[in-house]
Amino acid sequence: MDAYFLYQSIKQLWSEHTNKNSGLISKSNDAMKVCVWTEHGYREVISARYNENSKFIELELDGE
Question: What is the value of pTM for the model shown?
Fold first, then answer.
């Protein structure tokens, strides 16, 4: 999947499911985590970086 389309999908899902009480969006109280399924269960994405050598975006997962 292209990074731009992934970004658009995540943005759309966030917009549909974030708390919009009183027209205010409070990101600090209801942060929406991004997780991926691995052989060890769900892991939270904690960082993203561009790999210059491979020319792709790497997601760093939590270590639990």
Answer: 0.76
Q: Tokens standing for 11? A: 């943005």
Asked if residue 41 and residue 16 are part of one domain, the reply reads no
Q: Can you list the residues of the chain whose pLDDT is less than 50? A: none
Other C-beta atoms within 10 Å of 53: how many?
5
Alpha-carbon distance of 45 to 63, in angstroms, equals: 10
Characterize 3-26 residue by residue with b for buried, 16 or more Cβ atoms within 10 angstroms of its Cβ, and e for exposed.
eeeeeeeeeeeeeeeeeeeeeeee
Looking at the structure, do residues 21 and 43 belong to the same domain, yes or no? no
**What domain count does the chain have?**
2
